[in-house]
Specification:
The protein is an alpha+beta fold and about 180 residues long. The protein is about 40% helix and about 20% strand.
Length: about 180
């Protein structure tokens, strides 16, 4: 579980990696599942790294709290910086979980206790039949945002490793989601 203070609000983020035998029931759980607790399911292979995930959640939550959101729902708002787009339809197309693929179950709590978030997350995971896998540091170099980064962008980025340069570019792309160009 990760904790952030965003504009005076205590934000808890609980990402859980796993698979679902049947994703048909998933839609019934997405959204605000309790007071100030949201659930979103994300196609794991489209998230570059844990840093990319957490950065995108913070951006989406901050915009939502400030009333600068694009979507009317927080669980949808976080998809936009994660996919690097202002279009909800495009974000859903890229991040929608696919049958048989690993899924990131993401629980977000706003000013709630860690205990409450864990209780609700465990209940939802059990109801869905979610089979958990270990979530450690990860890199998905085949994600859509990685494919958008070209050699010129990499050469213009400070960093010691390819991973560091890719991650910086992806974080920048996530941050630019709310810039009108």
């Amino acid at each position: 579980m990760y904790y952030f203070d965003v504009d005076g609000h205590k934000i808890l983020v609980l990402p859980i990696l796993g698979v679902l035998e049947d994703i048909g029931n998933l839609m019934n759980y997405l959204g605000e599942i309790d007071d100030n607790i949201w659930f979103q399911a994300i196609r794991f292979k489209e998230v570059y790294s844990l840093k990319h995930l957490l950065h995108s959640v913070i951006i989406g939550v901050r915009r939502f709290l400030k009333g600068e959101n694009i979507s009317k729902k927080l669980h949808m708002e976080i998809l936009l910086p994660l996919a690097g787009t202002r279009q909800i339809r495009e974000a859903l197309y890229v991040l929608k979980p696919q049958k048989g693929e690993p899924i990131l179950a993401l629980f977000i709590g706003l000013n709630v206790t860690q205990n409450k978030l864990l209780q609700i997350a465990n209940r939802v995971m059990e109801n869905l039949g979610f089979i958990r896998r270990s979530l450690q540091e990860f890199v998905n170099a085949d994600c859509k945002l990685c494919k958008m980064i070209n050699e010129n962008m990499l050469n213009a980025t400070l960093g010691k490793t390819l991973h560091e340069k890719l991650e910086k570019n992806i974080i920048m792309m996530s941050s630019l989601t709310y810039m009108k160009m």
